[in-house]
Specification:
mainly alpha; elongated; about 45% helix
Length: about 180
């Protein structure tokens, strides 16, 4: 199905129950999937297609299918360039380099993504690995967050966020611009 979905869609899945031996057809199988998209409409379309694949597989194998959705959707992060620019200025004033992560793309989804659908939101990146690339959701990432470099990176983020907040509190025009961008 990967080749039939937009580049911005991600489908993550695991088999949580699949039998006890490879040569015995299990009475029951169970899987758990996440579907992510660049926006809610793209995600909803991908979810529909994933469900259709599951229905087709069940029909083709003569199985019963039961699907359940989680209690809420985790939306993609809606990037606010006004807030991103304010954070960038804070980093510059502290003499800190900006992350090379693209600010105009966010392929993840989380509760902050839901917040970003309701109000202008900022989700900055902070350095945690001393320049080495570390993939999130891995043991190496977890270890990097607890390292001296990870703690130092967190403190850089804290200082830059504090300066960003100070700029927003002292500049109603900047807040209006963030809202204007959000509404457009």
């Amino acid at each position: 199905m990967r080749q039939h979905l937009p580049e911005t869609v991600r489908v993550h899945g695991i088999v949580t129950e699949g039998g006890r031996a490879p040569n015995i057809i299990p009475e029951r199988a169970q899987a758990y999937f996440y579907v992510r998209g660049e926006n809610d409409a793209e995600m909803a379309n991908a979810v529909r297609r994933v469900k259709e694949c599951a229905r087709g597989a069940a029909k083709a194998t003569g199985c019963r299918l039961k699907m359940e959705e989680g209690p809420y959707t985790l939306s993609a992060m809606r990037v606010n360039p006004v807030l991103a620019s304010a954070y960038r200025r804070s980093l510059a004033s502290l003499g800190l380099p900006e992350s090379d992560a693209p600010v105009n793309k966010n392929r993840g989804s989380s509760d902050v993504g839901n917040v970003s659908q309701a109000v202008p939101t900022l989700q900055p990146n902070v350095p945690i690995s001393g320049g080495e690339r570390v993939e999130i959701h891995t043991r190496a990432f977890e270890e990097a967050t607890r390292s001296r470099t990870g703690v130092d990176g967190m403190m850089e983020g804290v200082r830059a966020l504090a300066l960003t907040a100070q700029e927003l509190f002292s500049s109603p025009a900047l807040v209006r611009d963030a809202w204007k961008t959000f509404r457009s």
